[in-house]
Amino acid sequence: MSNRSLTIVLPVYNGESRLTGCVEQMLELASDLTSKFSIMIVDDGSTDDTSAVAKELSTQYPQVRVERRRNRNGLGPIISMVQQRVESDVVIVHDGVSPIDSAQVRRLWRQSDAKTAPVIAARRDLQELADVRATHNAMAAAHERVMGFHLLEPLAKDQLDEADQAIMAATQRVHRPSKPQPASRAGVGHIPPLPRPNFLSAIAEFTLGE
Question: How many CB atoms lie within 10 A of CB 24?
Fold first, then answer.
């Protein structure tokens, strides 16, 4: 068994019905990997009983800690918080949306141990999600890269600040309402663009397993 420390981060929004099962699954898995582990539940402003369930889990299991957000802020701010506060040797973060996959966590743990893993710069991928505007397929491809569990790359403070600003600017560009375009000639109206699938909002839902 490894002597490296591990933190598994589970963002959740309105996930009271499945949170206990997910946490117990991760506790069992982490205990097989290392004796130094913790599970961080990040309640991203849930409006159901997620907070109460998370608190009960932290009381029952000393390896579980809970971070409660008053309002739903999304995955980006959660990543910032984790990178600033968590000091484990290995940090694995779930996207808060995809089904929990224990095999994926084991694979990332092995890769981090061998130091051969292509560490996922989750912030970069989130920025691309916010910034990709060309086609639906391109947005889907960007979204695919942040699905499931990922190793979280530690960043220096100046890198965190720069990444935060980039993500905020890109997100504002996506959500800024477009100005109405004048008709090019009489009798011909402007054709509105096709609606884009809002993958950032999908990630922000944080319903575990949905």
Answer: 15
Distance CA 63, CA 162 (A): 32
Spell out the domain ranges in the chain: 2-163+199-205
Cα–Cα distance list, 161 to 128, 165, 192 (Å): 17, 6, 36
Question: What tens digit of pLDDT does each residue of 71-103 get?
Answer: 998 888 999 899 989 999 999 999 998 999 999
pTM of the model: 0.64
Enter the CATH code of domain 2-163+199-205.
Answer: 3.90.550.10
Is residue 48 a contact partner of residue 77, using CB atoms and an 8 Å limit? no
Cβ-based burial of 187 (10 A; exposed 0-12, middle 13-18, buried ≥19):
exposed
How is residue 37 written in tokens?
Answer: 């582990």
